[in-house]
Write a structure and sequence with these properties.
The chain has 123 residues and is an alpha+beta fold. It folds into 2 domains: 71 residues, no CATH class; 37 residues, no CATH class. It contains 4 helices and 2 strands. A two-stranded antiparallel sheet has the order 1-2. It binds zinc ion. The site of zinc ion (ZN) has 7 residues, from loops.
Length: 123
């Protein structure tokens, strides 16, 4: 699919985000490799921000309390897990049996009804 607004992270943005990982053991040895991975795998500064935030929020020390820096391979995995865009939707399928092409469906939860994005608009 053609994407007209394809962006790339900036060098300054990458470096600023990467510094947030500097407390991890092994960061100094890995930082240039991590920078290279982020440069090729992240799609914008905002994406880099979310990748780094996910690492900081989920990384835990091992049994001995050692908190190691993510390896390039781990960073690639993190980058792939995190969507490049926050709200990834596509135009509704006009033959969709659920929404009939509106992109919305009515959901009823505990007696309350509301509109929800139809699954046909998800990537
Ligand atoms: Zn639909």
């Amino acid at each position: 699919m053609a994407n007209a607004e394809q962006e790339k992270p900036t060098d300054a943005g990458l470096k600023a985000q990467l510094k947030r990982l500097s407390a991890y053991h092994g960061y100094d040895e890995l930082k240039y490799e991590l920078l290279r991975v982020l440069k090729t795998n992240a799609s914008s500064d905002e994406h880099v921000d979310r990748i780094v935030t996910r690492i900081l929020d989920t990384r835990r020390p091992n049994e001995t309390g050692f908190l190691s820096c993510p390896t390039p391979a781990e960073l690639i995995t993190y980058s792939k897990e995190i969507p490049a865009r926050l709200h990834q939707t596509k135009p509704a399928d006009k033959n969709c049996p659920i929404c009939g092409g509106s992109g919305w469906r009515i959901v009823v939860l505990r007696g309350m009804s509301g509109a929800d994005r139809c699954p046909c608009t998800r990537r």
